[in-house]
Amino acid sequence: VPRMPLTCRPVNLLLLLLLLLTALEIMVSAHSLCFSFTIKSWSRPGQPWCEAQVFMNKNLFLQYDSDSNMVKPLGFLGKKVNATSTWGELTQTLGEVGRDLRMLLLDIKPQIKTSGPSTLQVEMFCQRKAERCTGASWQLAINGEKSLILDAMKMTWTVINHEASKIKETWKKDSGLEKYFRKLSVGDCNHWLREFSEHWEAMPEPTVSPVNASDIHGSYSSLPDTWIILGAFILLWQAGLWPLRMS
């Protein structure tokens, strides 16, 4: 089998380096935790005004509702977390955050153009890689319309729906609220993610839940490990750095 000309080897070496860096990125993969809240300004008796779902690497493993004020574990990871001391802390925090978010919804309700009950969908996201927090954010949707995103690492707001501009300005002026958002996402969420990651690594073969958190959060390589390794070997051989003997 003919080898590629020597003049092509620098290109091959560059591609090989990129492949190896991608493989390293996968080996040191990021873990993410997402808390998804649905808050209602009004609910019928016996129906929860707050529902929450918690995702680890886009896998649903916890559910919470304000009616029962209890956290329900789901799957292998949920059962593992249920047996830890973090469980009580998590239950309490979900209830507190739900109440705080409902107060925010009631405060901004006069600015929402609707005559009936309003809803606030909130996703708090954090990500860890190489033993450090590499991302933290909040996404807020009002009555099903994506409205605001807060980058809690840089503390910058992004307005998605122009109708939420006034709400953003109001919240941006509230330094206590911004500190609250940052503490929860960069602090508490990151702390739980570090603990849950240990249980995640012990899982047999995690599979993605049919119910996923929003795709705007987190980024993972779409290249399978096998193809990356195969590509690296091919480029090594073409560059003459990997001997291949034909019998």
UniProtKB/TrEMBL annotation:
Specify the MHC class I-like antigen recognition-like domain's residue ranges.
30-198
Keywords, ordered alphabetically? Disulfide bond, Glycoprotein, Membrane, Signal
One Gene Ontology molecular-function label = natural killer cell lectin-like receptor binding
Looking at the Swiss-Prot or TrEMBL record, what is one Pfam family this protein matches? MHC_I
Q: Where in the cell is it found?
A: Membrane
Question: What Gene Ontology terms for biological process does this UniProt record contain?
Answer: antigen processing and presentation of endogenous peptide antigen via MHC class I via ER pathway, TAP-independent; antigen processing and presentation of endogenous peptide antigen via MHC class Ib; immune response; positive regulation of T cell mediated cytotoxicity
Top-level division of the source organism's lineage: Eukaryota
- Record's signal peptide: 1-30
Membrane among the record's keywords? yes
Instruction: Give the InterPro entries listed for this entry.
Output: MHC_class-I_related, MHC_I-like_Ag-recog, MHC_I-like_Ag-recog_sf, MHC_I/II-like_Ag-recog
* UniProt keyword annotation of Cell membrane present: no
Q: Which is a Gene Ontology cellular component entry for this protein?
A: external side of plasma membrane
- Similarity comment: family membership: Belongs to the MHC class I family.
Query: What does the function comment of this entry state?
Result: Binds and activates the KLRK1/NKG2D receptor, mediating natural killer cell cytotoxicity.
- Protein name listed in UniProt: MHC class I-like antigen recognition-like domain-containing protein
